[in-house]
Design a protein that fits this description.
The chain is largely without helices or strands and 318 residues long. It has 6 helices and 14 strands.
């Protein structure tokens, strides 16, 4: 975009004043006119949406994305070879110079310069082939609402496999207090789930199945009791039980995780509803809020083989 006339700065530093009746220049006058855009104009012009989804792009995202200060949405999804590291050998087999290397080898999944995009609300990179990790600079994207970098799974070098983002989820993610959806299904994330997500009080959907996350599910649900609708950590390497604060999620609709983590639900609500032989199967628990979290009559479905639990329901004289 060209800057407006009122944003022009004259060579002596003064602001350009539009003459009454408008501006009318000859070709020679226009050529001699030497005003420049003000810093304010330069920082407030440019794209708000960048969508190149479903193309055949290769290489990497340029660092100059960080200059697009008005950018609100980026969609580079469904570019199956974008970011594919093996394309270095396929497209430039005899090139080892720095110029080609900058396009086919890079250290981060997205340029760290994108951390300057304070207005960015939507980042869609699903079904591309990014091979690196989440930069800590994502914590600067305070307007972020939708983060979608899911992959399709499969063999890393097969035609259909996309995304294999590795490394941990940075603690800086807790700064994204406006985030509604975090979706990184089918990647190779490792490390623990950061407790900092407890600060994400707007979070509605946390979707990270089919990764390599370890440790236990942190006790973070109290602060998002009115927002969280979906929690999916199925098929990771998590251990231990769900924290008891899961019961505070008033609007929870979908809860996907290994049966091994559901002892508090099975013991407190209705043990025989979730079969022990469901271990390792995703369909074991789709916890609808009305059926589980609000289920208050635990005594009506006590496991008949649990003697202590059954007799613990008795009171008064027999």
């Amino acid at each position: 975009q060209a800057c407006a006339l009122e944003d022009l700065i004259m060579p002596d530093g003064s602001a350009f004043v539009v003459p009454e009746g408008g501006l009318n220049m000859t070709a020679d006058e226009a050529e001699a006119f030497n005003a420049t855009c003000s810093a304010h104009a330069m920082n407030t012009m440019g794209l708000s949406q960048f969508d190149v989804s479903a193309n055949k792009l290769v290489g990497m995202l340029p660092t100059t994305f960080g200059d697009l200060v008005n950018l609100q949405a980026i969609d580079v999804s469904r570019n199956l070879e974008l970011g594919a590291e093996e394309y270095w050998a396929k497209l430039a087999p005899n090139q080892t110079d720095a110029y080609h290397e900058q396009f086919y080898r890079y250290e981060k999944m997205i340029p760290t310069e994108m951390g300057t995009l304070k207005k960015l609300q939507v980042l869609k990179m699903d079904n591309s082939r990014f091979m690196k990790h989440i930069p800590t600079e994502l914590g600067n994207m305070r307007s972020m609402r939708y983060w979608d970098v899911k992959g399709s799974g499969g063999d890393m070098y097969s035609e259909g496999e996309t995304n294999a983002v590795s490394g941990s989820i940075p603690t800086q993610i807790g700064r994204l207090t406006n985030l509604l959806t975090f979706n990184m299904e089918n990647n190779t994330l490792s490390g623990t789930i950061p407790v900092d997500i407890a600060n994400m009080t707007s979070l509605q959907r946390w979707i990270v199945p089919d990764n390599k996350l370890s440790g236990s599910i942190p006790n973070i649900f109290a602060g998002m009791n009115m927002s969280l609708e979906t929690w999916d950590t199925f098929n990771n390497k998590l251990t231990g039980d769900l924290p008891t604060s899961i019961a505070e999620l008033a609007n929870l609709e979908y809860l996907y995780l290994q049966n091994e983590h559901t002892d508090p639900l099975r013991n407190y609500y209705c043990k025989e509803r979730i079969a022990q032989n469901a271990n390792g199967k995703k369909f074991n628990l789709i916890a609808m809020q009305k059926d589980y979290i609000s289920f208050t009559m635990a005594g009506t479905c006590v496991n008949p083989f649990d003697v202590e639990g059954a007799f613990g329901q008795l009171s008064g004289d027999v």
